[in-house]
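Mods, move this if it's the wrong board.
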Amino acid sequence: MIARFRELIEKKPHEYRRLHWEAGIIGQVLYLEALASGLGGTGIGCFLDDLVHEMLGLKENTFQDLYHFTIGRPVIDTRLTTLPPYQHLDADKAIQTS
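Not the wrong board. Structure tokens:
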């Protein structure tokens, strides 16, 4: 998600927070739409915004890359183990009663 940035922030610095809030709201809608379509989604903060700016030819911060989002089908990694939430508490209880 790329937003008009510099001019807005120079005139209204308090809008910085709102830009990120709006990106987060859009991200939440994308999560729901992906799920409703039988897909998955992942929101990613813009740790690579400088690279994206370079790739798009954005020279200054007139526009700013705020948030990335991907949608697709999940790939199950069988190397990972999934346990029920708080499973460790049941194990602790079993040890205490032994």
